Amino acid sequence: MSNASPQRYNNTAILLHWGLAILIIGLLVIGYFMPDLPKTPLRKLIYNTHKSFGLIVFALVLFRIYWRLSSVVPAHVPGSPLQVKLAHYAHIFIYALILVVPGVGLLASSFNHGFNLFVFHWEPLFPVDKELAHAIMGWHGVTAYVLAGLLALHVAAFAWHQFVKRDGLIRRIWFGVAQ
Ligand code: HEM
Ligand code: HEM
């Protein structure tokens, strides 16, 4: 049963938001550094870990979108019509990207080395085509960096609410009772 109140997101949404935030930020940081690593077994392990957590993120995001579409959420925070619209579309754009980024990673890996869930390995789903895999992986990088830019704006918006407007917006997406 949903326990969403008009004032804050429910515990499922809060857990998903912060769990995914940690995973996605971790994947962005690891993804940024790993292509430059020397070709050692450690690099393989890091790629494997990136793909495994990426797969978990993909599944969690599907669940999160399902949750979002089927739940009652707090009304938008008051603001000018433009601010409300910007926040609304920025959130939709974030949802789209957190689905597309791992989706494109999976697609690229489906034409190359396959993908891993820790010790379990799936062979490539399609006939191996390294050139195509490389081209698709390029889009994985591009979309991941667009996501990083959008998340920077998301955190800047949070900081503006928290430290300039001082409206305690964070309470809407944190455990406890909203005031
Ligand atoms: C990978 C990192 C993150 C992602 C993907 C993400 C995504 C989202 C999304 C999609 C929403 C809209 C929820 C909805 O209405 O469905 C949201 C809300 C929110 N996020 Fe994040 N977020 C991330 C990190 C952060 C961080 C680091 C902060 C603050 C330090 C933050 C603060 C908030 C706040 C305050 C809200 C509530 C906004 C409101 O009530 O209108 N988020 N986040
Ligand atoms: C939200 C989830 C994910 C994020 C945020 C993310 C982020 C990134 C980033 C920032 C890069 C560096 C791109 C570059 O510099 O060109 C990268 C590379 C990579 N990602 Fe992901 N990734 C995610 C999920 C996945 C998944 C699900 C897979 C595959 C199953 C995957 C496979 C790879 C591979 C193989 C590379 C290395 C590409 C290369 O060597 O050029 N990623 N990722």
From TrEMBL:
Its main location: membrane. Residues 8-176 form the Cytochrome b561 bacterial/Ni-hydrogenase domain. The chain crosses the membrane at residues 12-33, 45-67, 88-112, 132-160. It is a multi-pass membrane protein. InterPro entries: Cyt_b561_bac/Ni-Hgenase (IPR011577), Cytochrome_b561_oxidase (IPR052168), Di-haem_cyt_TM (IPR016174). It is found in: Cell membrane. Keywords: Cell membrane, Electron transport, Heme, Iron, Membrane, Metal-binding, Transmembrane, Transmembrane helix, Transport. The keyword Membrane applies. It comes from the Bacteria. Its cofactor is heme b. Belongs to the cytochrome b561 family. PANTHER family: CYTOCHROME B561 (PTHR30529), CYTOCHROME B561 BACTERIAL_NI-HYDROGENASE DOMAIN-CONTAINING PROTEIN (PTHR30529:SF7). This is Cytochrome b. It comes from Methylophilus luteus.
